[in-house]
Design goal:
The chain has 11 helices and 16 strands. By secondary structure, it is α+β, with helices and mostly antiparallel strands.
Length: 322
């Protein structure tokens, strides 16, 4: 059972995805234009992610909003490093960058980057106009800060809802883990197919159930060698999984062949091969295992009988039929 590892929130029908250290967030507001390219406040809010518990913009997104190359932003901050302490601007670690690449499609190209990107907090964005010294930079920074404020207001206003959703998802994860544990215990304690089994007279259902489980366990083929078969055997073999072939080696019987023909017109075909001579024992081949059957499949449990897994190979048994 799959474990839930991500939390998903909804705001104005747009996804807010918590991916460990990173969150993509979104909202809607007015449009503005930078270098002829239209951005909305909603667009900016979608670029804001959370790293180390801080809402930030990655340098390449910030540069795109400003309409400049990424190195222009970083060089301006580097030349004025005293104005950009770590709470204003910090460089992602290799692991944080790879998590960014994994969770955000627009950062896929960072996978081949030789250096980790920088993240700018709201404080860092507010400091940029002082080092870029243009009216355009000032206007753009105001818009970006408005986006940070809008996101912070959203989280404050919806903190209760987000906490309840997070609580529900944590509860779901705990429930899934408990269900997994229960299923594991059930599997440990469930009856296994034994290589040898003895059925007392009258244990018709137990014998039928056991052989049914043998049929269901097949992954490739089932071969039955039995002198006496009827339509009950067809029903039993129909319990096999999709794609598993079934072949019956038996004596000629007109009524059974009629049943088989009707069966094969509707259900996955079961092949019939006529035995060239009478055989005393019955065998059931499941993939590469051979079982010696103490009675015909249709009569299992009607009298004292046993089933035993043999060491002989299927090919060895089948070669003796010729």
């Amino acid at each position: 059972m799959a474990k839930k590892t991500k939390n998903t929130y909804v705001q104005n029908s747009e996804p807010v995805t918590n991916s460990g250290h990173l969150e993509e967030v979104g909202a809607k507001c007015d449009h503005f234009v930078v270098n002829g390219e239209a951005f909305s406040q909603s667009d900016i809010e979608k670029m804001i992610i959370t790293v180390r518990g801080e809402q930030v913009l990655i340098d390449r997104d910030l540069a795109m909003i400003y309409g400049v190359e990424t190195k222009v932003i970083n060089q301006a901050a580097k030349r004025n490093s005293r104005r950009f302490p770590e709470r204003y601007r910090f460089q992602l670690t290799k692991d944080e960058m790879m998590e960014l690449v994994t969770n955000c499609d627009r950062f896929r190209t960072l996978k081949h980057s030789t250096s980790e990107p920088y993240a700018y907090t709201e404080y860092g964005v507010s400091m940029l106009p002082s080092v870029m010294s243009t009216q355009k930079a000032i206007d753009t920074s105001i818009r970006i800060i408005d986006a940070f404020v809008a996101m912070r207001r959203f989280f404050v206003q919806n903190a209760g809802i987000l906490m309840r959703i997070a609580h529900l998802e944590r509860h779901q994860i705990e429930t899934d883990e408990k269900i997994d544990l229960i299923l594991d215990k059930m599997e440990e304690r469930s009856p296994q197919l034994l290589p040898e089994q003895i059925f007392q007279t009258g244990c018709v259902w137990d014998a039928w159930s056991y052989v049914s489980d043998l049929v269901r366990s097949a992954r490739e083929r089932i071969v039955l060698i039995d002198n006496f078969v009827d339509d009950r055997v067809l029903s039993l073999l129909d319990k096999r999984a999709d794609g598993v072939t079934a072949t019956i080696h038996s004596r000629y019987s007109e009524p059974f062949l009629t049943d088989l023909k009707k069966h094969n017109e509707q259900y996955p075909a079961i092949d019939f091969i006529q035995l060239t001579h009478k055989n005393h024992d019955r065998f059931l081949i499941i993939d590469d295992k051979v079982y010696l059957m103490g009675a015909s499949l249709k009569d299992m449990g009607a009298g004292l009988c046993a089933v035993a897994e043999m060491q002989a190979s299927p090919d060895a048994i089948l070669s003796l039929l010729k």
